[in-house]
Amino acid sequence: MLPWKRALRPLAALVLAAALATVPAATAHAAPSSGWNDYSCKPSAAHPRPVVLVHGTLGNSVTNWVSLAPYLKERGYCVFSLDYGQLPGVPVFYGLGPIDKSAEQLSAFVDKVLTATGATKADLVGHSQGGMMPRYYLKFLGGSAKVNALVGIAPSNHGTDLSGLTNLLPYFPGAEDLIKSTTPALADQITNSAFMTKLNAGGDTVPGVHYTVIATKYDEVVTPWRTQYLSGSDVRNVLLQDLCPLDLSEHVAIGIFDRIAYHEVANALDPSHATATTCASAFS
């Protein structure tokens, strides 16, 4: 092994440890106790589509949604969440495998949810990679026929430069190949990666799906934050601070516990009954 590779491994471990420190303490991957992933749930006339929650990189079907899943359940939705992108020997922290393969896992899960609920379409809500990965499913795997809306919370729609850090990769020969081989999803999310180029070629959206993007200007992971926005005829791009200038949520907080962002999620899922999102939405 080259000396720089030996040095890179502890650095990667340090970065991973720092990232994991941002995950809520309830990292034990247990079955949800708040009523979601209930396959006996039947959508109501008021909320006729099940909601599938798609976690982000290093997340899982529980820790990413300990706040949003109950929030939506309380509002009468049938809510489901999946694990995807598992690497062999890596428990609890998912979303690390090749993103095109993760999209296949999402496709199978949506089919399972639609079969169980009897619904013809689902709505998808995803955080970070989970807000972007479904676009591959919609565009290349026939998902547009089974999905009504995609709501992305801080989604990596056009990749990330990690505040310029990825621009340093060419100065470390073999570094990008190492990332691709060990954590493919991280490599796929680098700006201008082959995956991102394929995903966004020919336009950001597909017909028949309603898109919402909720971003924060304090995002330190998906950068520049404006690259999260989508272009298309049926897209609503929202900046959290335009709704509440006092909201300081960054990349993790906007997905894990920000009820102002959640209010916008609820508006996107039921636009005919949408209400104004303000700072007071944190208490709604």
Automatic annotation (TrEMBL):
InterPro entries: AB_hydrolase_fold, Lipase_EstA/Esterase_EstB. This is Alpha/beta fold hydrolase. The keyword DNA damage does not apply. Keywords: Hydrolase, Signal. Residues 1-30 form the signal peptide. The keyword Transcription regulation does not apply. It comes from Streptomyces griseoluteus. It comes from the Bacteria. One of its GO terms (biological process) is lipid catabolic process. One of its GO terms (molecular function) is lipase activity.
